[in-house]
């Protein structure tokens, strides 16, 4: 019986990591201060950058998750450009600030287990928590993130 593998990236964050399928991550670029967006935005929206000729909003996943201003950025910070997958808005991509370079991992059922000790609340940026090779990682709720950004841009 063949084991299914999903090539994925572990994106380092402050105190944890995000686990995403490789196909969602378009590129990882060096961090540069995003331009402020027009209007009032939550603290977790850092602004926007230009990537491949398009304006991409940049967010702090930790800030969104905790509901506040993100911590001071690590000098090795990067921006992971994620492809929007839900079609919830006109957004094509969103940038997520990371604490450094991502790590490529091959995920298969033998190295991943779901952390059922603490279920995430509904309507949060965390879909679930997992252990991959005995280290905790979060799987982001892309539907929620895209919906939140779509609502912000519709209100602007």
Our count of domains comes out at: 1
The strand order across the widest sheet is: 3-6-7-5-4
Q: What is the end-to-end distance?
A: 52 Å
- How much helicity do the residues have? 10-25%
Mean pLDDT: 89
Task: Give me the number of helical elements.
Answer: 2
Whole-angstrom Rg: 15 Å
Strand content: 35-45%
Q: Could you give the count of β-strands?
A: 11
The dominant shape is globular
How does the major sheet shape up? 5 strands, mixed
Q: Within the CATH hierarchy, at the fold level, what is the topology?
A: OB fold (Dihydrolipoamide Acetyltransferase, E2P)
CATH architecture: Beta Barrel
Tell me the name of the CATH homologous superfamily.
Answer: CheA-289, Domain 4
CATH C-level label:
Mainly Beta
Low-confidence stretches: none
Sequence of secondary-structure elements: EEEEEHEEEEEEH
**By helix and strand content, what is the structural category?**
mainly beta
Could you explain the architecture of this structure?
- This protein has 156 residues and is mainly beta.
- It has a single domain (6-155), classed as OB fold (Dihydrolipoamide Acetyltransferase, E2P) (Beta Barrel).
- Helices cover 13% and strands 41% of the residues.
- It has two helices and eleven strands, in the order E-E-E-E-E-H-E-E-E-E-E-E-H.
- It has helices spanning 61-66, 142-155, and strands at residues 6-12, 17-21, 25-30, 45-51, 54-59, 78-83, 93-98, 103-107, 112-114, 126-132, 135-140.
- Strands 3-6-7-5-4 form a five-stranded mixed β-sheet.
- Strand 4 (45-51) and strand 5 form a beta hairpin.
- It is globular and about 45 Å long.
């Amino acid at each position: 019986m063949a084991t299914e593998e999903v090539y994925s990236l572990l994106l380092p964050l402050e105190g944890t990591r995000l686990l995403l399928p490789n196909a969602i991550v378009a590129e990882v670029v060096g961090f540069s201060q995003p331009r402020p967006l027009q209007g009032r935005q939550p603290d977790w929206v850092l602004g926007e950058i230009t990537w491949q000729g398009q304006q991409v909003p940049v967010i702090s996943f930790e800030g969104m998750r905790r509901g506040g201003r993100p911590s001071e950025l690590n000098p090795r910070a990067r921006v992971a450009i994620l492809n929007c997958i839900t079609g919830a808005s006109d957004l094509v991509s969103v940038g997520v600030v990371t604490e450094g370079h991502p790590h490529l991992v091959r995920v298969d059922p033998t190295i991943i287990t779901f952390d059922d000790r603490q279920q995430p609340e509904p309507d949060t940026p965390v879909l679930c928590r997992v252990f991959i090779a005995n280290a905790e990682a979060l799987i982001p709720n892309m539907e929620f993130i895209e919906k939140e950004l779509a609502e912000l841009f519709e209100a602007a």
